[in-house]
Specification:
Blueprint (H helix, E strand, L loop, with lengths): L9 H13 L2 H4 L7 H22 L5 H14 E3 L6 E3 L14 H8 L2
Antiparallel strand pairs: 1-2
Helix pairs in contact: 1-3, 1-4
Amino acid sequence: MPTKRTRLTTEIKKKFSDMACELSPENLCCDGEASQANVKDRFEKIMTRWHGLEDQIGMKVNDEIINQWEEEKSTETICCDLCGHEYDRHIGDECPNCGNNNHDLFVEKFGD
């Protein structure tokens, strides 16, 4: 019986992005402070989670795909110039976090 696949959501994309960050050499090796055994253990645990998510969504994910997701995200979001909260551009000008009106930023990035 085939496994039921989970829809690829923003939350799942973020999990992959976070794991890719965890796999960077400086993070994986704790800036050179971790032992080889500790690095190997951390790597294996992260990759187990990675492969589990791939199985869940039914596709292989690599750095190129993650970079594409990040590019798509940056074209669809606004970062509030007051509080730094990132939110979906379809919400409009007003930051849902602090209420700051980001109209000028919105127009500059997406036009009228």
